[in-house]
C-alpha cells in the first residue's frame, strides 16, 4: 500500500492547455462542494454494499459492455437496490409495490453506461486530479476527523474496513470528482446572449387576439350513414381499441383498528383508575393567590429587616403594612405584596414548595430563601378546577382507553398477519387470526377499482406474477389510517380481443363521429379559405346555433380559452398581406375554427423586467442541454452491447 502523505504540486494535470485552463477556473468554486458530496456518497455506498458495489468483482457475469469494458451483474443489482431504497425514502408512505421495477432497471442500466462512458472519456483526455488536491479532499472530509482535526488513523481504518487499499479509494474519488467537474464545466460555460434573452422575453410576454367558432359533432354524427363494410374496416384497423383488459376475481380480509376494541369491553376498574388519574392531574393544576415580603440578597440591613418583619408578624401587625414598609419588591410592596393567582411552576422551586405547602388561608410562612433573597409568604386564596363527576366522564374515558388498546393490538396483529399471509396459501388462517370474514369481488382491473382496490399499491400487488399466477397472498397493505388488507386472486382473466359482434354498437358510434368530424373540418376549411384578415367574421353557415367567440389580450398562460385553442392561436403566424391566419382544432365534442386577429407586442418595460428574470434560467437550460449533448455524443461513438 502506498503510504498516505500530504503532497504538494500542480492542482491539475490535463492533456490539453484549454482543458487545464477551464478546469482551473472552476477549481476553487467546485472542489469543496463536489468533494464533500462525493466522499459522503462513496462512504455510504461502501458501508452498505462494500467495494464490489462500485468496482465490481472478478469473474462475474457481464450484463453489458461499453467499448469492451464490462458492467457486471453484481454492479447492476447493487445499483438497483440503492436506487430502490432512494425511491422508498422519497415516499411519504413507503410502498415498494408502487415502484415500477422495469422502468427503474432501465434507468439504472442507463446510468451505469453513462458513468462508464464518462470515465473512459476522462482517461482518454488524460485528465487527473493532483495528489495534493486529493489529499485536501480527504483531509477536509468530516468522516475522517476527530475533534475537528484530520485523523490519518481513522481514514486508513475506514478504508481498510471496506476491504480497500488507499490507492483504490483515491482512484474512485478521483474519477467521481472529475465526472462532476466535467458536468460543472459544461453547464457553467453555457449562457444566453442578451439578444436571445430579449427575443424570448418578448415572445413570452406577447398577447394575441383571436376568434373561435365551435361546431358540435353530436348532431352531425347522428345523421351520418355508415355501411357494414365501413364498420368492419374500422374494427380491423383499430383492434387495439377493443381489447378487454386483464382482470381478476379477488378475495380479501380487512384488519380494522376501530373494530378491535369496543368501549363497552373496557372493565370499570380500568375506567375508574383513569378517572382518578385525571382528578389528580386537575388537583395538581391548583392555583394560589399569595402576597409576599421580599428582603433582597445583598441588602445591608437584610438580617435586621428579616427580624423586624418576623417581630411585626408576631405582634399581629397587618401583612400589607409590613410589606409596604420592608419589602424590596417595588412592583407589589404598595399593594400589600399581592402576587395574584399563580400555578405551582410559576415561581422559584423553594418559593412554590413553601406556598403550596400552606394548609390554611391567611397562614404566613417564612423566611424562605430563593435566588432573589428572603421571602415571607402569605396565602390569600386558592382555586382549582372542580373535577367532574365520574358519570359525566365515563363514556369519554372508555373511548380513550379503547383507542389506546386498539392501537397496541393493531400493531401486534399487523406483524402476525404479515408473517402468516406470507406463509399461507389461502386466507383461511389469516382470517381466523384477526377474526375477519373473507370477502370477494369479481372483475377487478389494474387501472381502477372500488374500495379496497381503489388503493393503487394493493391493485398492483394483485397483478404481480406471484400473486396472479402462483397463488400467493399479497403483503399486508395499509389502505387507510388504521386499515390494512391482505388479498389474493381467485381467478385470473388475461387480456383478450373483443369480437366485432360484441362491440358493433361502439364501433358504429365511433365511425359516425369520425365521419362527422371529417365533414365538419371540410366545411370549416372552405369557410377559412374565403376569409380575409381585413374583413369581419363571416356568418356561420354550419352548426345549429354555432356563434363566433372573440378573445382579446390573451397571454400564453391565460385560462380565458381552452388550452388547445389558446396554444393553436400562439402557434399560428401573424396575418400578412390581407390573408387570414386560421387553424382547425379538434375538441372533445366539437370541431373549432380559430382565426388569429392580432398579435400584440408587449411594452418595453414588461420585456425589460422579463429579460432580467429570464437570463439565468435560459443559461441553466442551455447548460443542461449542452451536458446532455456531450453524453449523447459519447453514446453515438461508443460500442455498447447489452447481454
Automatic annotation (TrEMBL):
| InterPro entries the record matches | PPIase_dom_sf, PPIase_PpiC, PPIase_PpiC_CS, PpiD_chaperone, Trigger_fact/SurA_dom_sf
> Chaperone among the record's keywords?
yes
Localisation per UniProt entry: Cell inner membrane
GO molecular-function terms, A-Z: peptidyl-prolyl cis-trans isomerase activity
Where does the PpiC domain start and stop, copy by copy? 285-381
One term under GO cellular component: plasma membrane
User: What does the record say about its membrane topology?
Assistant: Single-pass type II membrane protein
**Which Pfam family is one of those matched by this entry?**
Rotamase_3
Protein keywords? Cell inner membrane, Cell membrane, Chaperone, Isomerase, Membrane, Rotamase, Transmembrane, Transmembrane helix
Question: Is Membrane there in the keyword field?
Answer: yes
- Which PANTHER family does the entry link to? PEPTIDYL-PROLYL CIS-TRANS ISOMERASE D, PERIPLASMIC CHAPERONE PPID
Family named by the database record: Belongs to the PpiD chaperone family.
Per its record, how is this protein called by name? Periplasmic chaperone PpiD
The organism is Halovibrio salipaludis
